[in-house]
Amino acid sequence: MLQLTELKIAVIGLGYVGLPLAVEFGKKVPVIGFDIHQKRIEELQNGQDHTLEVSPEELQQATQLSYSANLDDLKSCNFFIVTVPTPIDDYKQPDLTPLIKASTSIGQVLKKGDVVVYESTVYPGATEEDCIPVLEKVSGLKFNQDFFAGYSPERINPGDKLHRVTNILKITSGSTPEVADFVDQVYNLIIEAGTHKATSIKVAEAAKVIENTQRDVNIALINELAVIFNKMGIDTEAVLKAAGTKWNFLPFRPGLVGGHCIGVDPYYLTHKAQSIGYHPEIILAGRRLNDGMGAYVVTQLVKAMIKKKIQVEGAKVLVLGLSFKENCPDIRNTKIIDIVNELTEYNIAADVYDPWVDASEAQHEYGITPVANLEQDQYDAVILAVAHDQFKAMGAEALRALGKSAHILYDLKYVLDQSESDLRL
Hints:
By secondary structure, the protein is an alpha/beta fold. It has helices at residues 18-26, 38-45, 56-61, 97-107, 126-139, 177-187, 201-232, 236-243, 265-275, 282-291, 293-307, 336-345, 359-366, 389-400, and strands spanning 9-12, 31-34, 65-68, 79-82, 115-118, 148-151, 170-172, 195-197, 316-320, 349-353, 379-384, 403-411, 423-424. Strands 3-2-1-4-5-6 form a six-stranded parallel β-sheet, with helices on both faces. The chain has a five-stranded parallel β-sheet with strand order 10-9-11-12-13, with helices on both faces. A two-stranded parallel ribbon has the order 7-8. The longest helix is centred in the middle third of the chain and has 32 residues, at 201-232. It is elongated. The mean pLDDT is 95.
């Protein structure tokens, strides 16, 4: 069995999850951060991280961390951590392609005694049913005899400078009791908040996928309440503040549900449930409701424009924010794009402004080129879609100055007081 003193880690995938993990381990033990994108490797070698998850100072502190896009460099590693994305396809089905490709790569350098730990979000059973067979086939080694596996789900919250890798309690698991103990010991080298050793890999996988499914369903309920209260002419935020005075009322808020976790993970669970003959009711209902919020926002905006006698067709609307959450450059699965696409359906021209987002990435991912500057007196409507600190600092007067003399200011994020905007979700 591998010993901690022999540990040499390879972190596969240096995105929002992998890089912070590699940096923390790189302060303690030898680590190779591997990514298939040479541009990403060069960026990190130059001490920069465009995701802004890790500062240049933190990169420097990881004195035992090196970077590579060359698979051969991983032959000396014996503990592999997979942190690649697990997205959904156009049909809302799990796309395990990055995970299978990562497993194929690891299989080419896997040796007897090595341990492979997956952190990517999957449905229960995926590690042992989908990934392990690939490792066995490519390496020619036997699972739980020649090599071993574990699952330790990531809990990264992009843009969150308070909840970091080291101070978030970590779930661990292993393919045998001995491996589970070892995986737990490895993570305890860096996790100050401690670990929770799950009883099996499947339990750890299930725990991860329900964390975000629970949030998704809760937000869906609040979104539905917001729709109801809007029809009744009641301010949703005022209702939630009043209800929040009860000690056990959960403080969720309505909004767009995007990003790489909450808007994606439930589909992994529902896919697995349907494959075993169960059709989920509540989870899919919540998904449908949350996926429809972009269209709902635009419908509300158009109604408000008509009431104010603002010409809808040919109108010009400014959308403030493109990232999936505030103070973060991450545009993966952002639901702001739903608003933009829906505006286009009404022949409304939409400008998007986001100081956090890389314009070339926005163009590549969504065909959108954000405007570089804000101009006054230009827009028939302004949608405050993401609560970046820059937008909060502007205040109602500066935000309204962007609009024409007759315009609608729609505050999706409750940044302003009720009296300062024309619409709130």
